Amino acid sequence: MRIEEITIRHLKMPMKAPFTTSFGTVAEKELLLLEVKDASGTIGWGETVAFVAPWYTEETLKTTWHMLEDFLMPALLHKDIAHPDEVSALFATIRRNGMAKASIEGAVWDIYAQQTKQSLAHALGGSKDLIDVGISVGIQSSTDKLLELIKVYEEKGYKRVKVKIKPGYDVEVIRAIRAAFPNLPLMADANSAYTLNDIEVLQQLDAFNLLMIEQPLAADDIIDHAKLQKQLKTPICLDESITSLEDARKAIELGSCGVINIKIGRVGGITEAKKIHDYCQQHAIPVWCGGMLEAGIGRAHNIALTALSNFVLPGDTAGSSHYWYEDIVTPEIVVEDGHIRVPQSIGIGYQPNLEIIDKLTISKKVYKG
Ligand code: OSB
Ligand code: MG
């Protein structure tokens, strides 16, 4: 492969419902779509997952664009590469900025899968035909509204429900959900809203048979999480704290978590995500694939990754129609009985819908290096 041309489109997509976490709300998703062309004419697609504001991690849509334009594309364009694993080596001197790196690396994986005539899932070593899908429910204006939504999701067959919590919107909310849905596979995600001073509140959550508590403490912490895990029965799942295989190794060694949420963007690409998956498998740590309110391209990459065997817990990659009036791929991603069928056709298995993409594009730039 030799990448000769990259087109970046800035898209703005209206969401069916705003999504609120402990630190931010997304009502309209903005993203960069990368159309990456190789010397032989094969086109691969990538998507950035950073939000407009840095409330989840430090990256933003603008920082990803800056990194792509000034560092990542110059490092990649016109270089001969035999395998997508080599992309991270080209980026080795550029620190962090995982979401920017992942967007371009995902497109290179797409090209590689097409040129080796296999599905992306197969190219990654995945063998599942069906993946289990959960749903992540944002913070709601009332508990009644939340219970109503959960009822709909349970009836739709989602394999587990994750609710967002924050100080003051936690124990009573979870208690109400458990009273209404005693057997629902349920978990809570704090997006790093607590500190060790809140240990008593977090311990109260042990009473509700949660599958896990996701990222209760600081986004860059593994020490306090290890202290907390010793005093909690419920497994801690790390999200924000894990940005690399090295982070995963240290967190597992310290006992900071029992589960890891893998997000391709947060860890800098599919190659690093696979390494974390393999390491967790060797250390009996189950993983699942997190979500970043992706449009169809990012969603397709998540589905392919989730086909790997240690993705044993339901992920957050729900169907297109949960988020979007119209997704940017054809067919859209469909969930049936809490499952998504992993495409077996060559490449990502979904076609970018250029008509819809054009409609949502607010600016566009072509780079040839
Ligand atoms: O912490 O997993 C998270 C959405 C935006 C930012 C962070 C998170 C989330 C979600 C939703 O939980 C996942 C999704 O539905 O894509
Ligand atoms: Mg999370």
Automatic annotation (TrEMBL):
Lyase listed as a keyword: yes
Catalyzed reaction equations: (1R,6R)-6-hydroxy-2-succinyl-cyclohexa-2,4-diene-1-carboxylate = 2-succinylbenzoate + H2O
Pathway: Quinol/quinone metabolism; menaquinone biosynthesis; Quinol/quinone metabolism; 1,4-dihydroxy-2-naphthoate biosynthesis; 1,4-dihydroxy-2-naphthoate from chorismate: step 4/7
GO molecular function terms listed in the Swiss-Prot or TrEMBL record: magnesium ion binding; O-succinylbenzoate synthase activity; racemase and epimerase activity
Entry EC number(s): 4.2.1.113
InterPro entries with a match to the protein in the record: Enolase-like_C_sf, Enolase-like_N, Enolase_C-like, Mandelate_racemase_C, Mandelate_racemase_N_dom, MenC, OSBS/NAAAR
Keyword terms, alphabetized: Lyase, Magnesium, Menaquinone biosynthesis, Metal-binding
Reported function: Converts 2-succinyl-6-hydroxy-2,4-cyclohexadiene-1-carboxylate (SHCHC) to 2-succinylbenzoate (OSB).
Pfam families: MR_MLE_C, MR_MLE_N
Superkingdom, natural source: Bacteria
Signal peptide range in chain numbering: none
Keyword field contains Zinc: no
Active site residues according to the UniProt entry: K164, K263
Cofactor(s) this protein requires: a divalent metal cation
Coiled-coil regions, chain positions: none
Protein name: o-succinylbenzoate synthase
Gene3D superfamilies: Enolase-like C-terminal domain, Enolase-like, N-terminal domain
Record-annotated Mandelate racemase/muconate lactonizing enzyme C-terminal domain positions: 143-235
GO biological process, alphabetically ordered: menaquinone biosynthetic process
Annotated binding of Mg(2+), by residue: D189, E214, D239
UniProt record similarity statement: Belongs to the mandelate racemase/muconate lactonizing enzyme family. MenC type 2 subfamily.
